[in-house]
Amino acid sequence: MSSLDDSRPEFPASEIISRIESGGPVILSNVTIAGDLDISAMYLPVQHSEEAADGMARLISARIDIRNCKFTGNVNFSGAVFQESVDLSGSLFCEEARFKGAIFLQDAGWEKAHFKRYATFRDARFQGDARFSGSKFSEIANFGAATFCGKSAFASAFFSELCTHFGGASFHNDADFTDSHFAGTANFIRCRFLSQSSFWQTEFGSEAIFEDTKFEGHSIFSAASFRGTADFRRAIFRDDANMEATCFSGYAIFLKAGFGGSANFSGSRFDKDASFEGAAFSSYARFSRAQLASCSYVEASFAGPAGFDAAKIAGQADFDKSQFLSEAIFTDAAFSSSALFLRSTFSGPAFFSEARFAGQAVFSGSVFKDDASFNSARLEGNAEFGSVRFDQDARFLGARFSGQADLTSAHFEKNLLLESTRISSMRMAEAEFSRSSRLSLRKSDFSRLEIGWSTIADLLLYDGAAYLSLVKNYRNLEWFEDADGCYYQYRRLSQSLKPLVQDGKLNWSKIFDIVGWISCGYGVRPAYTVLLSALFIIIFAALFQTWNGVAIEPLDWAIISAPSDSSQIIDPVLDPSWDQSHKLPFQDHLYFSTTTFLSRAPGKWYCVGPSRYAAMIEGILGWLLMALFLVTLGRKIIR
Questions:
Q1: Model pTM?
Q2: Partners of 34 in the beta sheet?
């Protein structure tokens, strides 16, 4: 800014007025202009103008070129129409400078000018370029409802802590506020930026209000600093909005803001609450590496990819009822407090891989229409997935659930992959799986998994260690029927994978597995033993009847001759003709077979012929199966 020496030669304001009235050029440099410079004291041609206070605009045909000068009095060109260029660069305005409703038909410049008192350009219209780069406003600067048809340059400008008002201004060409400084409130309410607008590295020391502002072109706020509240509620960004590496020290308000192009907040820092409730992102929304104190995206809509990868959110993150219509990328994101995704919709792939949830993670009622990936995610607090719907694969490979995980009434249309997952406690009561779903617990480590075996019996992919861990889990829960069912299926699948012949030799391991399956259901089905025992009893009874190998003493000992001749008595054990003349009904053979199986053959019943050997084998099988039944039954009872 110029600091002009008072020893500079004085030039009377009246002389400038005379030159303007005569239409001649006014060219001055490095002088002190003494007195007021007031257009109302000039005799100039007039024309009707609604912007002018008295309804009449005064036409100034002279070219004005007053550089590096000092205006000691008031400067008032309100309602003036400057037909030629105006250049007041480097000048110092000690009193008020009024250009309200002025019209600049050519370029107008105030580069490095210093306005020590109130400066107003309200309702002014700049047909050419408006240059205020490096200018300084020590008090209120009013550009309200001004129209900038050409390029407007406010780069490196300084605005005082009182107030800067651009409300309702319209920028039809590029607007450059690069590296400018607003010490007080910056009011851009309902402004229109029809071309590119740049606030790169701009510093807002107090409130910055862009409420209902429309950015039709590319808007740049990268590396800007908002020390007070940044209010962009209902702002419309029709082209790309670049806020990369921007610092929001106060509240950041983007309620119902609309982003037609990409919205880039990568690397930005939000020290207080950031509100994007109801915001609509039509293209890529980038919050990669952003640091947020707390944020709200309630009912926000992301039509393009939403990138929150490596973002760090210290406070609560609220995405309740948000709509992710494309990719949702939260890879390596860190949630230090609650992360709320209640009733959110993920239409594209959702990536939460390697994300860290230090607090509560709530996805209840959400819908994942594409793959959902939580691979290697760390959920350190409670994780709530109640009534969540996964239409595609739900991947939790390598994830860690340190708190309570609740998947009650969750619906899985495809696969649930919990491979290499560490689970402290997970509840999946009333979870639903489609017929095509599969559940994988390979290499997983879980302390408590509450899901009924009947729900996952047909879905669980085979892994021996996972099955055994699940059996142990059910026993710890005292869900013994589920434990038995799981163990039984584990042994069946394990048996099916073993070859009957291995390396040219009979695989006895498979043989023993088959015997264990048939005889007692691998020790968890005592009914199998009962059924097998009944089968053996019936088979041996049929054999006894076929061979006619059972005799009863003395009823079946026929006396051929007189009773006194004992030599004529038939011995059924020694006489081979016995089976030709004496037969018992099947029920008697069944009775004999049953008592023999129970090792309690009746005293006057005898086996004859080959039935003697069959009875011996049946007795041995009876002892073995009875012992096996008692062991299996006792195991189920004592637990």
A1: 0.83
A2: 12
